[in-house]
Design goal:
Blueprint (H helix, E strand, L loop, with lengths): L2 H42 L3 H29 L1 H15 L1 H5 L3 H33 L4 H22 L4 H19 L25 H27 L5 H4 L1 H15 L1 H8 L1 H21 L3 H15 L2 H10 L5 H30 L1 H18 L6
Length: about 375
């Protein structure tokens, strides 16, 4: 191998690690946010329905921001847009910490959701460009970093929540900003990144519909794991606020492990089989949490959900990229459905829990996981 090729690969590794740091930063912030949700619920005296409303406002902010993310990326350049949105998300986490009332908390959630929506789109769009320049499928490694960040964030949140949600969110904001700032300088100049704005709300073609269904159903469950596992363990399993973070931590840990070995598993079994068996395993894990609403079995169930769902999104993203001449357009079709599921899922769970109870709401997630497994049949090798 020539010295020039070695230098190019070294530069590629620096950029790749920078993207890993950004994904980790976002996951860490979401993990801390998830750990603080039960405490915020108690602090403001929110019912399940009111909490679902706050999480719905979070989703509204994200959806509105995602519609503008393509313009931001085109205006600033993919690298600068990724840097700006990562730091904005970290800073926004301070707002729920100081919200004095439920209405103020909802307004803060709107802003946090908007910042997260911007970062979701810009970092994934930038990562897809890195993957193209790398010349091999590496998207799972970025999503593994996001899941690792969620695990660390949930662990930190559980450890600090005794000091109050305000201090916990402030610590999470500082750590998320630190990792984003560490990764930002090595992101390539916009002239070397993908110049075209991502089609964040692209209308799916017919061939993409099963992938969109799989992505949406998978991420409904994934979003619910982030926002409702702690509440479930407190309300149904009798866990303390500090211990309740173990549910999302278990989910995140097994998702990291699943994504780290995901490429090897896909090579061995094929895309469709991994999605089908993964969705089935997630459904079984959720069924365990419903059937045995105690700390140990419910946590084990959430861990099985992490294993099952870990590679569904990377697989459907890769499959979507092959459906169109422009791979970014195919990814955008699937990603839009996935984001919609991730952001709306927690609010749907809150609405069901308000009327029928949280265990019935988790039964709805069992149907989502089973539906994702069914949709996986349409994924071609």
């Amino acid at each position: 191998m020539s010295g020039g090729a070695i230098g190019l690969r070294a530069a590629g590794w620096a950029e790749r690690l920078g993207v890993v740091a950004v994904f980790f930063s976002n996951g860490l912030g979401i993990g801390v946010w998830a750990a603080c949700i039960p405490a915020l619920k108690a602090r403001h005296g929110l019912s399940d329905g009111a909490l679902g409303g706050v999480l719905f406002v979070f989703a509204v902010g994200a959806v509105i921001a995602m519609q503008q993310a393509a313009r931001l990326s085109h205006w600033l350049g993919p690298n600068a847009a990724t840097r700006a949105s990562a730091l904005a998300f970290a800073a926004s986490m301070l707002l729920p910490a100081v919200a004095p009332s439920p209405l103020a908390l909802a307004a803060a959630a709107l802003i946090v959701g908007a910042a997260n929506g911007l970062e979701d789109v810009t970092m994934n769009a930038y990562a897809s460009g890195v993957e193209r320049r790398w010349g091999a499928a590496i998207m799972s490694s970025f999503h593994a970093a996001w899941s690792a960040g969620g695990l660390i964030g949930a662990t930190i949140g559980g450890a600090l929540i005794g000091f109050g949600s305000a201090w916990t969110l402030a610590a999470g904001a500082g750590l998320a900003a630190a990792f984003a700032a560490a990764g930002a300088p090595v992101l390539e100049d916009a002239s070397r990144a993908a110049a075209a704005p991502p089609a964040g709300l692209a209308r799916p073609i017919r061939a993409a519909l099963p992938l969109c269904v799989a992505a949406a159903l998978c991420m409904i469950a994934e979003g619910a794991m982030a926002d409702w596992t702690g509440v479930y363990l407190i309300d149904e399993a009798g866990a303390t606020t500090a211990v309740a973070a173990i549910g999302f931590a278990a989910f995140s840990a097994t998702m990291v492990a699943g994504r780290l070995i995901g490429d090897a598993v896909v090579r061995a079994l094929g895309r469709a089989q991994v999605v089908r068996w993964g969705g089935t395993l997630a459904a079984l894990g959720l069924a365990l949490a419903v059937a045995e609403p105690r700390l140990a079995p419910a946590t084990l169930g959430f861990a099985l959900v992490g294993v099952g769902l870990s590679n569904v999104v990377p697989i459907v993203y890769s499959a979507g990229a092959g459906l169109t001449a422009n791979s970014a357009a195919g990814i955008a079709m699937v990603a839009t459905a996935g984001y919609g599921g991730y952001l709306s899922g927690p609010a749907v769970i809150g609405a069901i829990a308000q009327d029928a109870g949280l265990r019935i709401a988790v039964c709805f997630l069992i149907l989502c996981a089973a539906g994702a497994a069914w949709a996986g049949r349409a994924i071609r090798a």
